[in-house]
């Protein structure tokens, strides 16, 4: 069901009968994915909400009358209620994009970026290994894991139960992480003489790989696995050899483009996996 396609009469009637308690099963025999898609569509479609209200009124007049009575009692109180303070309104607008659990992780990422920059600037001259370049691919990974983690977010269960808690919410919070990490890396890259493509493509490719793998084993596990693989396969050998590997030089950029495209394709192909609880681990 797309944003321009309205819900069918079968879905509306089945949902109304289930909500009114006139049918057995979860919601009048509708499949779980149908209920999920319908509830997400109803949030944005006034026409279908009006159709649902009419169906509930026809199926259960007593329920409709009770709802109208409750609303008639609440409407005057809501009209007299003071508007929310600006700070609360700002928090409400940021809620789909961030969680309180992200703050310490993003602060840690910024601190690591600053430390890597200082070590780069204090290191020897040409030929040195850039720690900013070496850490850039995995810096957003911790923030992405923290933004969708059951163990770190006390409101996670409530958020995960909403109709829009699938891939759109995961992508919003990933964008919020990148909005903090990329400017920091951009400033550090300019200070150390790195071109944006050197660190940006690996950064985006690893972030996309985390999302793709997270749809299979969970975001936290995907972040841990990818960070461990990067440390073992690239970071440790690079520090031991004392020279920048080919994957982080200009000739490695086509590889990162391919990995980014592959990761994006996996995420889009398996977008239904992000509505399940398994990817929250």
Radius of gyration: 24 Å
Number of helices: 13
Low-confidence stretches: 22-26
Average pLDDT, rounded to a whole number, is 77
Task: Give me the strand/helix succession.
Answer: HHHHHHHHHHHHH
Shape: elongated
The count of domains is: 2
Characterize the biggest β-sheet.
none
What percentage of residues falls in helices of 4 or more residues?
A: 55-70%
Structural class estimated from helices and strands: mainly alpha
Number of extended strands? 0
> In angstroms, what separates the terminal alpha carbons?
28 Å
Strand percentage lies at under 5%
Question: How would you portray this structure in words?
Answer:
The chain has 281 residues and is mainly alpha-helical. The protein folds into 2 domains: 9-80, no CATH class; 91-280, no CATH class. The protein is built from 13 helices and no strands. It has helices spanning 9-19, 32-44, 46-59, 61-80, 86-94, 102-122, 131-135, 139-147, 156-160, 167-192, 196-217, 219-241, 253-269. Helix 6 runs antiparallel to helix 8, helix 6 (102-122) runs parallel beside helix 10 and helix 8 packs antiparallel against helix 12 (219-241). The longest helix is centred in the middle third of the chain and has 26 residues, at 167-192. Mean pLDDT is 77; it is low at 22-26.
């Amino acid at each position: 069901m797309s944003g321009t396609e309205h819900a069918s009469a079968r879905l509306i009637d089945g949902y109304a009968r289930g909500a009114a308690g006139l049918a057995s099963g979860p919601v009048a025999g509708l499949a779980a994915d149908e209920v999920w898609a319908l509830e997400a569509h109803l949030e944005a479609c006034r026409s279908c909400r009006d159709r649902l209200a009419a169906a509930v009124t026809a199926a259960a007049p007593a329920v409709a009358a009770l709802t109208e009575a409750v609303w008639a009692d609440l409407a005057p109180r809501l009209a007299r209620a003071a508007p929310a303070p600006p700070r609360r309104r700002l928090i409400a607008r940021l809620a789909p994009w961030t969680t309180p659990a992200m703050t310490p992780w993003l602060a840690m990422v910024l601190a690591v970026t600053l430390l890597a920059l200082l070590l780069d600037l204090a290191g020897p001259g040409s030929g040195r290994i850039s720690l900013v370049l070496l850490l850039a691919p995995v810096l957003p990974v911790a923030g992405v894991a923290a933004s969708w983690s059951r163990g770190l977010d006390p409101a996670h269960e409530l958020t995960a139960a909403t109709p829009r808690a699938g891939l759109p919410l995961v992508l919003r919070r990933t964008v919020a992480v990148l909005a903090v990490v990329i400017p920091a890396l951009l400033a550090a890259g300019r200070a150390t003489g790195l071109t944006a493509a050197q660190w940006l493509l690996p950064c985006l490719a690893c972030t996309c790989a985390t999302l793709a793998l997270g749809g299979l084993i969970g975001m936290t596990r995907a972040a841990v696995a990818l960070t461990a693989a990067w440390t073992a396969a690239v970071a440790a050998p690079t520090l031991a050899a004392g020279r920048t590997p080919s994957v982080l030089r200009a000739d490695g950029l086509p590889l990162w483009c391919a990995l980014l495209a592959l990761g994006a394709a996996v995420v889009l192909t398996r977008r239904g996996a992000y509505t399940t609880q398994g990817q929250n681990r």
